[in-house]
Queue: 3 jobs
Job 1
Amino acid sequence: MKHIIIGTAGHIDHGKTALTLALTGKDTDRLKEEKARGITIENGYANLLLNDEMTASIIDVPGHEKFVKNMIAGASGIDIVLLCIAADEGIMPQTKEHLDILTLLDIRKGIIVLTKSDLVSKEWLSEMKDEVKSSVFDTFLKDAPIICVSSKTKEGIDELKNAIVREIEETDGKRRDRPFRLPVDRIFTVKGFGTVVTGTLVDGCVRAGDDAIVYPTGKIVRIREVQNHDKTIERGEAGMRLALNLAGVEKSEIERGYTVCFPDSMIMTKCMDVRVKITDSADYLVLHNSRLHFYHGAQEAVCKIRLLENDELGPGDEAYAQLLFEKEVAVRNGDLFVLRFFSPVITIGGGTILDASAKKHSRNRKEVINRMEHLSDETPGERLLALIAAQKKSLWDVKTLADTENISVSDMTEKLKELYEAGDIIFPDADGFDANKKFTAKTLMEEIYNDIEDALGKYHKENPLKEGMNQAELRKSMSPEGKADCDRILVYFEKDGRIKISGAEVALGGFEVVLSEEQEDLKRRIIEFYENAGVKSPDDKVVEEEFAGEAKDYSMIALKLRRDGVLVSLSEKNAVLKKYEQQTLDKFKELSKIKDEVTLAELKEAMDFSRKYAQLYLEYWDKTAVTRRIGDAHILRVKDKEE
């Protein structure tokens, strides 16, 4: 079944609420003040019964200039607009402002309703139609049907309902395959039930029992019950007006403009990249660093606009900009917004969120504008690549990118597959395309490698005798910040031979330690020193004193001898030539053939060295799983015994 949101729009006292009553039988003015003053202040909601194949909810918005922010909150969720123009007055200021707002919100379907038709003659109605057509010729309503109605006599109401059905049939409606999102426009409590929020479900589906989160507070809640126009339903679907009974949160913890949605499906931000358009009818210039009111869904926030190419924007201008907020707002990439001046509070434009996770950019930078152009590209691949490449702190996963872009995981998977086949993205720890693995842009991987190459090149130059740089130290110079992502990237570059990894150390693929003649001589003398020591492992301090005059080269060569397996470190302070460690182990194995358990004293006697050395060897073998200690004795591990 198709679910559609219909919204009214138009100047105050042009019959929007009366029209809603005539269509639905419901008076949407519920506040005492609205009844007393005869004007709509808050958005009203009503169910429009049509047929078994579609449902429609009508949002009746206020027309008074003081309540435009309420109108924007209501209009943000609509699919089809009923632009109401009183036949006896024609186009008025709020008619124009509402039409500007609808255009900024990319509303594409609508019907022009000439209300109060019973108050004028047929000739006047004919002239009014011509005037209206002329006024909307360059808007999305240029081909919209114009229907004359009287809410008082009901003339034209059936014709309007039929027109609404036709418009709904030609409207795609909202996406159900996205993570659910409900901007909150009302909060109240029901005795025995607790906190209830209402709003238009603009994306996805929600069921009773689902876990959700309230942005921007991050409060975790559970959906107790879902209602659509006072009826409990099993599942709410995008395009419905819903009331959600929430468990785990108090009414005082939620405000109008908050969003209820699945966890991790929104972006919290204080800085976003945007494409801004100023309305053709704007009366003021927008200056760089101007303070503005930002409207998105049902939320309102104060921001500062940073123009990246211009110092000012005038009527009809479009430009790339950044919006900086005083407090965090919850959004998704691709969302639309409306901007109004801080003072006077009038609508001046709006735009599209290109990157909600942006960092502050320098102005008048070609590379910044080029990136913005890619982000605003209508070709999905170009935009995705720009977005993926911009995320340098970590690799992407499919769900996170799908949520960020507000599309389904299946759609995102298909788009990523196309990018992979074109060679534009890489899955570092996969052999091919794998939607369950993390990925990034190929261009970013090359940038990361350049950083790695610079860091390792510098390290090799400063430490020519060291086999490589510690991985933990290298990660500090890499743009991805998480250890897991860095490890994925390092393994990827190891596979293609650009780097080599040995234990905790990393080196450039072609790097080899090359000793000078003097260093080769020192290496020979160090080995000779250990040769003379034999099985009696000397203390490192003794060796260091022997070569104190060549301390820097000694430490690096000694480390290399350990890494090459020439020396074996029996402890942190003692080493021995590998052949002497093996000679001692062979003697232990001989003793093990006579009796399984060999004591320290027995090894000491067999090798004719002190207790100190026997303990060094036995503790080393225990640590390296060659032997196992049982009481005061040691035995060979089973595998070694069988061999």
Note: The CA atoms of residues 457 and 508 lie 7 Å apart.
Job 2
Amino acid sequence: MQKIHDRLDGYEPGQFKDKFRVLFIIVIVALSLVVLRLWYLQVIKGSELRQRSENNSVRLRKIKPMRGLVMDAERRVMVENQASFDLVFVPNRTKDIYRILDKIKALYEERSLTVATLNSFTGRVKPFVPVILEKNITMEKLAVVETHALELPGVTVEVTPVRQYLNGTMTAQIIGFTGEVTREELDKGTEGILTSGDITGKFGIEKFLDAHLRGQSGAEQVEVNVAGKAVRSLGRKPSLPGDNVVLTIDSELQEAAWNALGDRPGALAALDPRNGAVIALVSSPSFDPNLFNGGISDEDWVKLANDPRHPMENRAISGQYPPGSTYKPIVAAAALEEGLITPETTFFCNGSFDMGNRKFRCWQEKGHGQVNLHRALVESCDVYFYNLGKLLGVDKIAAYARAFGLGAPLGVDLTREKGGLIPTKQWKLNRFKEPWQLGETISISIGQGFNLVTPIQLANVYATLGNGGTLYRPRLVKQLESPDRHVIKVFEPEKMGALPVRPQNIQIINQALWGVVNESGGTGGSLRRPEVDVAGKTGTAQVIGLPQDAKARKAKRVAANFRDHALFACFAPLGNPEIAVAVILENAGHGGSAAGPVARKFIDAYFAKKKALQSGAKVSQVAEGEKR
């Protein structure tokens, strides 16, 4: 002990002071570093870390809005919304999305539920960005997910509104469908208006009026537990539903038009000549827009995209066809207005018209004999109009055709409308670098050659003739309404111009169109009704040229897809028309025998409904009178 005491006494106080000083400095430096770190975390990074901490228990959930309803002219709902359940993964509790997917698949397979609709996922996940695993899940799948919630951390079910198209294929080409916004759409200046996951219109009215229909998204702060399940709401900004759209379409007449066409490729367009309202617009074949609810499957998309009949093409506004003899009233109007003929002017038809070394045949091989303008339209004499075409020239015909609204889109309330083609000398020179030939004018004069029109353009031509010469822009939208049914905007009739044709000349043509249906020898007898109220014109449009030699023409076998198109265009009743209709059936043969009966069924349906409504009104008036 003495030795130890002696050793301790041997240390000088200065030695302890030096070592203590070093230790003190080390402690001070360490404490300073801790304080600096705390200051950095709380002051410099405090806001960010606080947000991260809150995100561990609070999630911002987007509330998708209800899209506006779409109704017909009589306020029958054509498109509504229904609840859909989407399976969503928020990887704030686990980043192993593959383990979660495998677990869900295993749960599905145990109950023999399909796993094909589960989205495959590649790439990295972000901690607080939701990933949609499956859209529009069934109630069976919903029950599986909810009962195994603790085994599926980060998985939740969100309620999303989806469209329900009540008229299905009959109105698919008009109304269209919706889908999730794409990156390309977000890059087109809609950032801030649209965000990832929003639903937008992709086709038809859904696209044309998307800004009105889609509404505004809301948001909700939701507190979640350790499994990522919602516990309570901390705050909510409700979504705003979109505006409702009232169309000019009558869904009952739309169904009548659809049934009249059947499954044959073609289109029917029906307008009100008094204001340009579209009453029915059918394109066949069509597709089921409900396939796109929740995202169309690869199998269904490939089937639609590869269908050779092109069901997603709206033939009524984008199908372009030679007008055939339905074009003859325009040529007649031009010849009358230019003073080149009078109604009494006659030409002799022996069945053909010679131009150089080429014969242009009339559909009536034996010819029509000596015919004036009235009989030429009634019997659709080609030779008569070959003579008119030679007198007028292509540019004069084109000028009148454009005054009737042909050669450019009419501006109907849909996307992808095409304008057809009305050729001129300059057009051919620009397009083919070749001069115009007189023989081409001969073909143009009966609606063949380069001429192309759409069904809605053709219906508008006859609506314009029927109403006496006022050209209206066809419109599909009647008005926009707020969700509580207050009218926001009314789409009034829009005049595009007036025909450069005197009323007396229009009357001459209309009387001949009445004769097409109601007189002996008329080509449109299939539209003859007891009320003798329909005026119209048949048309048969060649798809390909045929040999000049008669025997060769008969011997040539034409494939089904190269057979003539059948056309019929009309308005009714004569003098005060309420409806104008154009029908085009692809590769169906003659207009009078193929397209005419389709128009007849639709016209009958229109007037039958009108009669029923008038009878109902009379009954109501009588009943009201009895009460008084």
Note: Residues 251-614 form a domain with the Beta-lactamase fold (CATH 3.40.710.10).
Job 3
Amino acid sequence: MRQIININNDWYFTKEIAFPQKINNLTMENINLPHTWNNIDGTDGGNDYYRGKCIYYKNLNHIDLRDDEEIYLEFNGVNMFIRVFLNNHLVGEHSGGYSRFRFNITKYLNNKDNILVCYVDNSASREIYPQKADFTFYGGIYRDVNLIKVNKSHFQLDYFGGEGLKITPHVDGEVEIEVFTSNSNNHKLLLEIYDNNEELVAKANAVIEDEHSKQTLFVKNVHLWNGVKDPYLYKVVAKLDLDIVSASFGFRSFRIDPQKGFYLNDKPYDLIGVSRHQDRALVGSALTKEMHKEDMDIIKEMGATTIRLAHYQHDQYVYDLADQYGFIIWAEIPYITEHMDEAIENTKSQLQELIIQNYNHPSIIVWGLSNEITVVNGCSPSCYKNHEELNALAHSLDKTRLTTIANLFMLETSSPLVKLPDVRSYNLYFGWYVGEKEENDKWLDEFHRNYPELAIGLSEFGADANPQYQSEKPVKGDYSESYQAIYHEHMLKMRKDRPWIWAMHVWNMFDFAADGRDEGGKKGINQKGLVTFDRKIKKDAFYLYKAYLSNEPFIHLAGKRYVDRVDEITNIKVYTNEKEVSLYVDDVLVETQKSEYVFNFKIKINSEHKIKVISNGLEDEMVIRKVDKENQSYICSSKMEVTNWFDEAEELNSDCFSIKDKVKDIKAHPVAGALYKKMMEEAMKSIGDVAKSFVMPKEMQEKMDNMSLEDNLKMAGHMVKPSMIKQLNDALQKIEK
């Protein structure tokens, strides 16, 4: 009978490097898995976290194994390269930090102690993805490690980390079941299907031929897997001699219509949700099952219907929970930012692992081939060819699902890469990095008008928010919780009028580590999350989405952290899925409003006040107070907003250049162009490695060159300091046209 033995406990770890035979001479720390060595230095800023080699050591002791048994060593996630030795023998190695892999260690066992030594390396490499991205590449054995003891006749364990069981259900009740085995030719196979109540609903007997069997079973009166509304699951149990495997599955159909959006089981189904990274404060990527479940529970509370599990394969437990909760999943590989010819084979092996290990999950509908892959070098012929091959590979492995790509908003919509996958999405950041939030609407409308036959989605959109920062008049780039809220208010309104957007995924559900960042009052953290890195604070925007998406009645007063208020007339904002809200100030009813999702009340304040809102038996309250001076702790000292480009009262000499002139005219002048180039070089020093590597597409560059330099600078945000703009304008005013 198969035994799965978890061996997470009692390992030893060191950053020192030595040959296996010298391991006992090292000073090692006693640890338990999951473990990463970057849980602190990978989240504190400076872009200086340790990327290198480390050693994990464990004594497996004596392992009882019969002559008719084999034993496998299973790793569920090691970032990003590992070489494994057992008793000084090289067992194997693996490249890629996010998938499951196994080694058959039977022939390396001793009759006494069995010494396991793992060399793990997250050093920079041109042969493994990812290498450039806006998140921390945590090193370590950060997911479970198991021993799997099986009879020599067993379901296959060697093929890309799969289970040897492939289930393809159809909504008419037909279930195609394939099994892949080892040492089992002519052996008998029993297949059983159970419903969600553990009742047997179908079974079949077969004989293994060429280590393979494909059978078709039928289930009567099929109960569909229907997303978050009704995530009904069945289970296949496959029995082979002394080996048993099982997997859950669901009956469901889906399609994506370029004009009408996503359909689940032939009915319109709104895909509005979030993206998720797998890390959190203090533990980095070494999350426990309890932490993974907490994340999924928070997403469920918000009412999301879909999750983009970015930018890599997530823990198997997360996909299991997605099936159980009914989330629609976008699953992807970490082919990101820069195409590297040296890593082409790695993109293919990671895609094979992703699909083979996750084929049976009903929650998954699309395989993501890449993310913002054109940032560094655009779409080279090699890059496009690799995408063609990945697309074909995905369809050869899985004929039931679609492929997709997440494109950066700078990629021309005319690029052939946009049309290559079955569906596509864009990462749009108008209203944060560039432009104004209304430009998201214009961009999407233009795409839909120009390419009505192409399904388009929003794979990323968001605004950073530090809950400490608050404002009565929030603006783009101030990092306030207040601006993040009004930004997402706009995006949800925008989506409501455009059902053809097949899916939208907020970037991000949780703040996450990006060690190269230093902005918004925190180092090493991307703060676009609707929930903080430690999961302790749900930002106001979280409750906005809950108002739109959740069926659980609730009411939330936004701005609870905005206590000290300067303005005599202040706005009280409420998010709720109720239709009527009554506002009380100091227990006196002030106003009752009828609205949908967002309620705004204007009140006059002169001291400290208790604010309470009530709706249909629900209530929430907070305290605010009138102050004479703005609370400086509410203001980000390094906010992106740049105002007062120069003294507006100053009269410009129209015979000379200024920032009011078009960029193309400034660049065409030898002296003015040199000044512009120097300023942009200085500006680029303030951004991370990924952004520095970005190559502006010709189509976008032409658009920007036709804009005024002033408008370009507004889009640049915190990259350009006000003093730089002032100096540039003064210098341009000395250059005659």
Note: The chain is about 20% helix and 30% strand.
